[in-house]
Amino acid sequence: MVEEKLKYTDIIVEKKPPIGYITINRPEKRNALGLETGGACEQLAQAFLEMKEDPEMRAFIIKGAGDCFTAGFDLGGYDQGIYKPREKGIWKGHELEPLAEISAVGPLASNPEAAYPTAPLLWGDGLWDNPKPSIALVHSFCLGAGLWLINQCDIVYAAPTS
Q1: Membrane spanning segments where (predicted)?
Q2: How far apart are CA 43 and CA 33, in angstroms?
């Protein structure tokens, strides 16, 4: 079964061999990373794999559009996609449920019953396990999941205002 390629709506992918550019492009939401199925987290995972598999790309740069790198996860889509809480869920109920009560769903989730609900697991194969250098260009703030993202990059260049 061939998975359908996601449309890039929350990121911009540019290939200018030998360098690739991935821009998180949700400036109206401070480049928050959507967790919904097909959202920014999955789009980033797909883009990282594209860079890894493209023989013309020798390195790639990740940056944010607008006035910041990223505000982290967009929690507005938390219960609609990649990490959808079962029944009560963490956000729907009043009790904090164990992590094992959360399932991962979506086209890029390799283990649908994953107990550790973090989108960076989706980024691993294309970013962390990529032999091509990844460079994060950070300006202004980089919060929450953005820190996970830049932690997996080979080089992080942060502007003095970061």
Answers
A1: none
A2: 10
pLDDT band of 42, cuts 50, 70, 90: confident
Q: Please state, as a whole number, how many other Cβ atoms lie within 10 Å of the Cβ of residue 104.
A: 22
Please provide the CATH number assigned to the domain covering 11-158.
3.90.226.10
> Which residue reads 């219960």 in tokens?
79
Strand 11-16 and strand 19-24: pairing? antiparallel
Find, among 156, 157, 134, 155, the residue nearest to 58 by Cα: 134
